[in-house]
Amino acid sequence: MDAESAQAIELIRSRISIRELVGRYVALKPGGKGVWKGLCPFHQEKTPSFYVNEAKGLCYCFGCKAGGDIFAFLQRIEGLEFREALERLAQEAGVELPRRKGPPSARKEALQVLELAQAYFRGHLEGAPLDYLRARGLTPASIERFGLGYAPPVWDGLLKHLHRHGVSPQEGLEAGVLVEREGRFFDRFRNRITFPILDPLGRVVGFTARALSPEDGPKYLNSPETALFKKSLLLYAYPQARQSIRERGRAVVVEGLFDAIALHQMGFTEAVAVLGSSLSSEQAHLLRRAEAVELYLAFDADEAGRRATLQSLNLEIARSFVVYAVLLEGGKDPGDLLLLPQGRDLFEKALAEALPEVEYRFQVAAQGLDLRRPEHKQRVLEALRPRLVSPEPFDRVVERLKAKVISALGISPRALEDYLSRAREPRRAPAGDPLARLSLGRPDLTEKRLLRELDVIALLYAVPEEEFGDWVRYVEANTWPPEGSLLAEFVQVSRSNSKSRILRHFEQRGEGARLMDILMKSPSFERAELEAHLGVAMARVREVYYEMRLDKLKAQLKNTTELEEIRALTREIQEVLQAIEAERRLYKR
After folding, report:
1. CA distance 211 to 190
2. Closest Cα partner for 358 from 392, 319, 332?
């Protein structure tokens, strides 16, 4: 990394508080001097183990081991590449990044193509297509807010538009807005209302398009999945809803894109829509990041809608929310309410009367059955059994569902437990578990070397970006890290990477968590004390290098009978012992 880029990165760090950035996604509370804590956004937990150290500019979860600086945090929580996180934070901090050499990335090119397509569609929304949206009850403000557009019925309108802006047909194909058959390219969407799909950063990454003519099937046509557009990872209207979700502590999840827009227009701005048949784990994680506590699933009232609701309830992450099923009178969809004068009140009533998860599960399982008949009771139990068994000892849904079953089916608690016993798996610990025999004795030299090298790396990581390379070279010249060691690899990686990327490198190597653990636990010190701290850490590293050399010399001495070789090895052993004592005096004084 050049000096200009390093300076820009350091300037961004100085202008953006990691506590403020993390606080957009995590509710933080004071956890000590300069330290804040909250529930980790990367895994489910009930007790906060996610800490933010403002002085060090780092965050870290002592549970799942995720963490890093502002760049690493934004990368992980928004699913970005380093350059994307850097550009976003640079824009926020008002820092101009040095111009990149070479062609722009393919990812950026695809985003630019999609923006051009969106401008084309927006520019053609007039006349009959616009009248159609108004007839559905949408206001100009809603149409503008969600960027609705229209793809004309011509075969090459977008193709020519992209060509005028220097975009090749192949680039349009890769962005998902053109198709190719037998070497010819043409527009994917024709005579359709277009809905731009945004990622969590608010960028257009794909489209869903609704046909205006019954002859133009299918009714809804999506962009193909690309590196940017993956339906299971995105929620429609999420960027527009995120702030309301955080403020209200709840999210309303619907199936249709029109439904989501209609609810926003009626004032339910916490509404989002799935882009598939049901809520996915990744989509639920997005809602959790927005600090939703309650989920209101307002899927269609038909069989497919019930199935989608149950699939969403069965997600492991869904157990971290309080979940309700919203049932509209007459089997209406939320979008239908937009044309009714009392539509908002009807949906408000449906939310107030939403069925808790337990009631909804039982109602679906018992639908159409006579609960006085033993065989029908059996069918209810079979339908509910997967959710009546849980590895969690205090699963609130399990306990309430059991109580509902006992009451509604008229069976005893003992009979229910006997029925469920076959579904439970034994919880015995494996015999002879080697973990039980582990002790906390003195680590061997390899582990000792690793821990001491991590101490040096942690100190180097505290150095400002513009001085980082110089201090790495200083450590290399004063420790001579042996080939194959962690410190040698760190020195090599540091020659061409920023600190954020180095941390990611060691995460992938398997040592990222240990490095972050040391970074978070190590005491803070003044910048002027860095050389003294490094001097001690380097002495301790050199000591263990000498100790490892001593072990090899002793092994060679044990396996030789040659008198001259014995004398040479003995002299070298004495020299190494003296060097070890010299290093110990350096860090013990």
Report:
1. 8
2. 319
